[in-house]
Amino acid sequence: MIELKHVTKRFGSLTALDNLSLKLERGDVFGFIGPNGAGKSTTMKILACLLKPESGFATVCGMPCATHGTKIRRIIGYMPDFLGVYADLRVHEYLDFFASAYGMPRRDRKKIVGDVLDLTELSSKRDAMVDSLSRGMQQRLGVARVLIHDPDVLLLDEPASGLDPRARIEIRSLLMELRRMGKTIMVSSHILSELHEMCNTIGIIEKGRLLFSGSIDDAIRKSGLHKGIELRVDDHEKAAIVLRGLDVVTSVEVERDRLVIMIEGEREASRAVPAALVAAGIGLEVMQPRTVKLEDVFLVLTKGEVS
Ligand SMILES: Nc1ncnc2c1ncn2[C@@H]1O[C@H](COP(=O)(O)OP(=O)(O)O)[C@@H](O)[C@H]1O
Ligand SMILES: [Mg+2]
Known about the structure:
This protein is of the alpha/beta class. The protein is built from eleven helices and 14 strands.
């Protein structure tokens, strides 16, 4: 549905995208994650046919962005990171303006505007002035705007940035609804945990390079952090010494009321660890896989390099 192949984009001497390749299948919800300046917006602008790369190519539905801008713009809905707000317009006028820009006949526009207001739960704000809306509502209006022409593909650049927790949840549930409708979505954020519930795939980008793309589970596996086990025992100090002596244990850390150990070989460890503790006369209260924090996965995969 969307493909970038060996895309390099420069701004003067700065390489914003460096040989970037990625692919989204139809119906994918792809979370595009990276720190500020990583190249997320640049990638989306290339897909939205607003920027041309120096080398490599981008396609949407098999059509090259470089040559099929007019057709691609009908298939995609692009919501930029900065939403120009039109003062002096009411919500429905704002949407009607974009509907007419897409060449929709006047008689259809009222229904379409009503439909997208329903979907984005803004119907009660139909007659409100755009610049009087809360930031969360303005972001939902931004999504409403890109849905006007019922595009199959959505490119949403940081739709939840700057929102309070409640507004974030509202944006998330709106995106889940769009996912259920079968839209193919690329959504960016600099916060990994914000995206993981709604995305089936993610890409991690830093300094213009794609460090990872795949499922969240793959990301966790690749980070190696899943190999952690949490233990609660009746003597942490003694247990730490015993566990450090085991081949299957690669590291032992004492964290407040528990021990976190990293292991090599889950099966072996699940036998060797309790056996060693019992043999040493240590009472084992809890043993469970460590809950992996996505922030930690992100830090490992990006090696802490933030531009
Ligand atoms: N129009 C531009 N002119 C010059 N540099 C740009 C321009 N757009 C983006 N950049 C630079 O390209 C890099 C990637 O930017 P961007 O794609 O906006 O990152 P992100 O969206 O991940 O924060 C940054 O270093 C940014 O300063
Ligand atoms: Mg950006």
